[in-house]
Design goal:
The complex is a heterodimer. By secondary structure, chain A is α/β, with parallel strands linked by helices. Chain A is about 35% helix and about 15% strand. A four-stranded parallel beta sheet of chain A has the order 2-1-3-4, with helices on both faces. Classes of the chains: A alpha/beta, B alpha/beta.
């Protein structure tokens, strides 16, 4: 008998008053430096973002975003260089194209628009880091916890895991 | 006769196409029968559950199970067959990834039951009997199997040894999988019995794919006259070849239709839909947000397109709250 509690109700149950958890993916050339600047400038902002530094916003695979939501993030924030300023010329445009499509998919999956945000923040804009994070935290507090379904671990490592030998047929 | 290895076929939440694929082996079925005894195959042979229960645990060498797991009965049979079999093979997209039935994970259990058992225009169910409820007929008490809250892949309910991908798996894939599993050197547990590379590598149109594809608009197959030699992506069709496992030899593309992703993703991809979405979005020929949105309006159903066969196996598994 399928165990409903095991399979269907297993979400990230957290109290309604819990603080929002945001995963930030910041590009190393602009937004990560801006966050650094915010720190050295002693700008105070909400402590709810866990930042992951990536070389370029174009490196952010949609799987990273889904994985964050699947593992309990209430919001995901992507930070990249302003259009035209990408260290790799085109990376932030690719990020934008993917993010706009991903946002539509997330809404189909019941994840509100405000929970997934892309911002262009240059290395000089420490103050903008504060604005964006404070604003996002305020919006997520209003929305409450996401409580997404937990991913089910396959009984054994399944097809999706790496390191399977190729079968030549 | 008793010396031959035993194999079994079973179906859960599926359309019957996988069974058809086995029947379509035609005379090659005889090769299977020559090499093994088929001891359980409800669609073709009259064996019942109690026959299966009486077999020794682990006495079936391979069970090919197609279909996703939604009801208590399917879950129960999956566990029973797991116990009786040395190798359990998830056969076809539904069993491997949830398949088309897995798209039901975009809807809640209650809304599905309401529509199918109560509101449907041709439904007559004045007693409001739903799956899981006891129901009384002339022979006494009966109950429909319970309907769980969401659709599951086979490997989310029992341990799975191998995967045979496809909707349905192609003849060549099946015969090779059977031969591999009946042979002396079974592959490592967890192996997908198909090549681990993207479909584009075996696509007959791969030479027509330009280095860079830039699209101002996506198109659906009924909206254009599809050129029979050009790369389908280049024609603006949502062909999921770049993010789909090879092995079908581009069967749909040979029929002039885009790949919809039934064989799942190659091994290093965790979430097929996310990768497909990523690949497709990168083709958009615009740097302007408003224009990109306009182009995206030509993809009316991203979840249904990119997760057509893999929603229950995806990172999010189901719509929030399902």
């Amino acid at each position: 008998m399928l165990n409903a509690a095991k399979f269907d109700k297993e979400s990230h149950a957290v109290p309604e008053t819990a603080e929002p958890r945001i995963v930030g993916f910041f590009c190393t050339w602009c937004t990560y430096l801006a966050a650094d600047l915010a720190g050295t400038s002693r700008i105070k902002y909400q402590p709810n973002v866990r930042v992951v530094r990536v070389m370029c916003s174009g490196r952010i695979d949609p799987q990273f975003v889904l994985d964050a939501f699947a593992h309990g993030a209430d919001g995901v924030l992507i930070g990249g260089c302003h259009p035209g300023d990408c260290h790799y010329q085109q990376g932030n445009y690719n990020c934008l194209r993917r993010a706009l499509l991903l946002s539509r998919l997330l809404q189909q999956m019941g994840i509100e628009e405000e929970r997934f945000r892309v911002e262009w923040i240059s290395a000089a804009e420490g103050e903008r880091v504060r604005e964006v994070i404070d604003d996002m935290v305020a919006k997520l507090r209003k929305l409450g916890p996401l409580q997404m379904n937990r991913p089910l671990a396959p009984e054994i490592s399944s097809a999706q895991e790496p390191a399977f030998e190729e079968v030549t047929i | 006769m008793g010396e031959k290895p035993k194999i079994a076929f079973y179906w859960c939440a599926s359309c019957g196409g996988c069974e058809e694929a086995v029947v379509d082996l035609a005379e090659e079925v005889l090769d299977v029968v020559a090499a093994a005894d088929i001891v359980f195959w409800p669609v073709a042979l009259d064996y019942k559950r109690h026959d299966l229960e009486q077999m020794q645990d682990g006495s079936i060498l391979v069970t090919f199970l197609n279909g996703a797991i939604r009801t208590s009965e399917q879950d129960d049979m999956a566990h029973l067959l797991r116990r009786k079999s040395r190798y359990l093979v998830a056969f076809g997209s539904c069993s491997q990834m949830g398949g088309i039935p897995g798209l039901a994970n975009l809807f809640t259990r209650d809304s599905i039951l309401q529509q199918v058992y109560l509101d449907g225009p041709t439904t007559e169910n004045s007693d409001h009997v739903l799956p899981g409820d006891p129901s009384i007929d002339a022979n006494g008490n009966l109950a429909l199997p319970a309907f769980s809250g969401s659709v599951h892949t086979l490997d989310q309910v029992v341990e799975v040894d191998y995967y045979v991908p496809g909707c349905p798996p192609l003849r060549k894939i099946i015969t090779r999988a059977v031969a591999t599993l009946l042979g002396d050197h079974p592959p490592e547990q967890g192996t997908v019995l198909a090549p681990d590379q993207a479909l584009c590598t075996e696509c007959p149109r791969k030479d027509s794919k330009p280095d860079k594809i830039a699209l101002k608009q996506f198109r659906r197959p009924h909206e254009i006259v599809i050129d029979e030699t050009q790369c389908l992506l280049e024609q603006g069709l949502l062909c999921l070849g770049p993010s789909t496992r090879a092995g079908c030899e581009a069967a749909c593309i040979k029929g002039n239709m885009p790949c919809t992703g039934c064989c799942g993703a190659p091994g290093r991809v965790r979430d097929q839909g996310a990768k497909a979405l990523s690949a497709i979005a990168s083709l958009i020929d615009s740097q302007d947000e408003a224009e990109i949105e306009q182009i995206l309006d030509t993809i009316p159903d991203p979840a249904g397109t990119f997760y057509r066969y893999s929603l229950p196996a995806s990172l999010l598994r189901a719509r929030r709250g399902v």
